[in-house]
Design goal:
Blueprint (H helix, E strand, L loop, with lengths): L2 H23 L7 H20 L5 H4 L2 E7 L3 E2 L1 H10 L12 E11 L2 E12 L8 E15 L2 E11 L7
Parallel strand pairs: 1-6
Antiparallel strand pairs: 1-2, 3-4, 4-5, 5-6
Length: about 170
């Protein structure tokens, strides 16, 4: 057989193998209805945990994967616990609910799932002062399924910029 015939045979054998490999690696990730609900609950519990300071910050940290991160602020359980414990320490508990997360959009991803949600932080004042909006923006999250259920792998806060007031 000539060299050309060997090249043609090798090529014909390689094409189906390539198609099979592509089919295996390009399968889209899927989430069940239960996955969506569990992730939505995870997102909701994060606001409660940081506002209530449950377990001195440990309730908030428990919502993250052990190596989870909150932007550049905190990475890992110890730093996340410390971050949550220090956040508005003097204004915690049910009378001071502040973090309102809405419009949660969850998408399947190869590493688990990704999500985006809006955040508005309010200052619920007392002493006759009006409530005010402290900040707003959105979270970009990556979620990972762990033996304990879905957890936040990373959360990045992107502050809204509204420009100068006139």
């Amino acid at each position: 057989m000539s060299k050309l015939k060997y090249v043609i045979i090798a090529t014909l054998l390689a094409i189906p193998a390539g198609w099979a490999l592509r089919a295996q690696t390009s399968k889209s990730a899927t989430l069940t209805a239960a996955d969506y609900l569990e992730i939505q609950q995870l997102v909701a519990r994060a606001s409660y945990a940081v506002d209530m300071h449950g377990g001195d910050g440990s309730a908030y940290a428990a919502l993250f994967a052990p190596d989870g991160s909150l932007g550049t602020e905190a990475k890992g359980t110890a730093q996340l616990t410390e971050f949550a414990a220090k956040t508005n320490k003097d204004r915690s508990g049910p009378a001071f609910a502040r973090h309102f997360v809405t419009n949660v959009v969850i998408k399947p991803a190869p590493e688990g799932a990704t999500g985006r949600s809006y955040l508005v932080t309010l200052d619920i004042s007392e002493s006759g002062q009006p409530a005010s909006i402290l900040s707003g923006g959105h979270y970009d999250d990556v979620y990972a399924k762990t033996p304990q259920g879905w957890r936040i792998k990373s959360r990045n806060y992107v502050r809204s910029e509204i420009g100068p007031q006139q």
